[in-house]
Write a sequence for this structure.
C-alpha cells in the first residue's frame, strides 16, 4: 500500500508540473510562432490552458489525498514534511481554481467585449486593457504554481525511500 501511495503522489505531481512546463516552454511559444495569427494562437493556448487547469485540479486533488495518508500514519517527528507538502499543494490547487474559474472566464469576456480579436482592438479599449492586466496576472500565477510544484518535487525527492523488510 505504501508503494501505491508513493506512486500516486509522484505521478500526480509530475504530471501536473510536467504539463505546466510543456505548456510554458513548448506549446505556447510554438503556437505563437507557427500559427498564422496571434488570435488563432491565443485561441489554441487559451483552450489548452483550460484543459491544463483541469488536469492540475485532478492531479492536485490526487496528490493532496495521497499525501494525507502518510501524514496520518507517520510519527509526530515526520509530520512536518507532510504538512509543508499539504500546504503547498493546497495553495497550488487554490491558485489553479482561481485561474480556471476567475481569470480565464474574465479574459474571455474581455476578448468578446473588445470585438473578438484582442490584437486588433484599440490600445485604449477598456476590455483590452483589462485583458492585458489579467494576462500578466495569469502568467505570474502560473509561474508561482510551477515553482511551488518544483518545490514539492524537491521535497519528495528528499524523502527517505520506504524501508523494505
Amino acid at each position: 500500500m505504501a508503494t501505491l501511495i508513493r506512486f500516486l503522489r509522484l505521478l500526480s505531481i509530475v504530471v501536473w508540473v510536467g504539463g505546466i512546463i510543456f505548456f510554458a516552454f513548448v506549446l505556447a511559444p510554438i503556437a505563437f510562432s507557427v500559427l498564422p495569427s496571434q488570435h488563432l494562437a491565443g485561441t489554441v493556448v487559451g483552450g489548452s490552458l483550460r484543459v491544463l487547469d483541469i488536469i492540475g485540479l485532478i492531479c492536485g486533488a490526487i496528490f493532496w489525498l495521497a499525501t494525507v495518508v502518510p501524514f496520518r500514519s507517520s510519527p509526530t517527528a515526520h509530520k512536518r514534511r507532510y504538512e509543508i507538502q499539504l500546504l503547498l499543494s493546497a495553495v497550488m490547487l487554490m491558485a489553479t481554481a482561481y485561474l480556471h474559474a476567475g481569470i480565464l472566464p474574465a479574459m474571455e469576456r474581455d476578448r468578446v467585449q473588445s470585438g473578438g480579436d484582442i490584437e486588433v482592438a484599440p490600445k485604449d479599449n477598456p476590455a483590452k486593457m483589462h485583458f492585458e492586466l489579467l494576462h500578466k496576472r495569469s502568467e505570474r500565477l502560473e509561474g508561482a504554481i510551477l515553482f511551488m510544484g518544483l518545490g514539492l518535487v524537491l521535497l519528495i525527492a528528499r524523502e527517505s525511500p520506504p524501508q523494505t523488510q
The helical segments are 2-34, 38-73, 79-113, 126-158. The chain has a mean pLDDT of 94. The radius of gyration is 19 Å.
